[in-house]
Amino acid sequence: IKRLNTLLSPGFMNGRIYVYLGLPGSFKSGMLLKSALDIRKYNPNFQTKTPGMKPCVLLISMENTLQETIERVWNMEFDDAITDYDPEEAIQKLYEKLGYGCDPEPEKENKNKEKSLTDMLLEEDKKKEVQNIDIVIQYKPYKSIDTDDLYTIIEDLREENMEVCVLILDYIKRISPAIPVQDNLRLELDHIMNELKALAIIKNIPVITAHQMNRSAAATVDQAI
To answer: Using CA of residue 199, residue 201, residue 202, residue 205, what is the dihedral sign?
Structure first.
């Protein structure tokens, strides 16, 4: 997206928060998912702050389930329907397309062992340049977590040797602020934005999210059209 590249130049920056604004059904979740895929695709040599750790994009989906998100990834990457394949075939196609499926330290095999199709596919993967950023997708129900919980999720991934290089949250209205606010949506959103900005600075990563415009904004857009 050339215009978006110009606006973002030189790219998503550490310590900053980025918000896609849109009306209902305007592909906000799609843009967040595309951002995750593109970050992985166009940063093949990304280096973590902590040597030896695996970089990852952390996508927290609080609207679309994990199954819906995977189906959307499929539709972004392939022209045929995911239902045309059994689960194992679909997983293999996604692995090959996104660069997954390569074990950097495979167990030594018996040379006389007959190789399965899976073995041969993994051998082919090892011959290719595999992009080193993983995408971790987690589904959290509406208002089930607050912004402080994001720190815990990031630290839990560190214990699995994965360093979050960017946090993508879908989307602002579906997470709770760490500091509760009673019956004041504007103040609640204010707190959420400030807390996400603080997380971006403390963790030194970009935070990318989205926000749904209200009826007043929709009326303004309709009038302009």
So the answer is: positive
Cα 198–Cα 164–Cα 21 angle in degrees, nearest 5: 55
Kindly state the tokens that stand for 76.
Answer: 């972004």
pLDDT digits (tens, 9 = 90+) for 87-123: 888 888 887 777 653 333 434 444 455 656 556 555 5
Q: Which two tokens stand for residue 132?
A: 């080193």
Taking the model in full, what pTM does it have?
Answer: 0.81
Strand pairing class (134-139; 54-61): parallel
Nearest of 125, 66, 73 to residue 99 by alpha carbon? 125
184 SS3 class: coil
Closest by CA to 18, choosing from 207, 205, 213, 220, is 207
